[in-house]
Amino acid sequence: MKHTFLFALALVLLNANAAPSRKLPRGEVQFRAYCIGCHSIGCNRGGPRLQDVFNRKAGTVPGFRFYTESLRNSGIVWSDESLDAFLRDPGKLVPGTGMAAIGRIDSARDRQDIIAFLRRQDKSIDLCF
What is the CA radius of gyration of the chain? Predict the structure, then answer.
């Protein structure tokens, strides 16, 4: 009985963050696939919040303590172009960044869709704890 309850609870929790039945915009789908494991729009998680990312100097989100020195000292100001280059190959743009191992997105369309989604600043999918 206890195992049945735990299994049912696990199913409920896994589905609690499932995509809604509406058709999601491509940018949101790609953000969920590539980014939401570490990032949200409105709060810091394993990665910094992405609210107001455009025109912000890399490595400067208040309250986020896990930047690598290489990113803090990169001099990058986030724009469509710099985000595209970073998402394409973080380690090439900023050697030593923590995103180098997990952040590479080869598809130009996926990168552009994510950037368009970030411009919307949609906090409805935030997973803030």
Answer: 16
CATH code assigned at 44: 1.10.760.10
Residue pLDDT, tens place only, 30-43: 999 999 999 999 99
Kindly report the three-state secondary structure assignment for every residue of the chain: CHHHHHHHHHHHHHHHCCCCCCCCCHHHHHHHHHCCCCCCCCCCCCCCCCCCCCCCECCCCCCCCCCCHHHHCCCCECCHHHHHHHHHCHHHHCCCCHHHHCCCCCCHHHHHHHHHHHHHCCHHHCCCC
**Helix pair 26-34, 108-120: axis angle to 10 deg:** 100
Q: What is the pTM of this model?
A: 0.78
Give domain status of residue 15, yes or no. Answer: no
- Residues 6 or more apart whose Cβ sits within 8 Å of residue 7: none
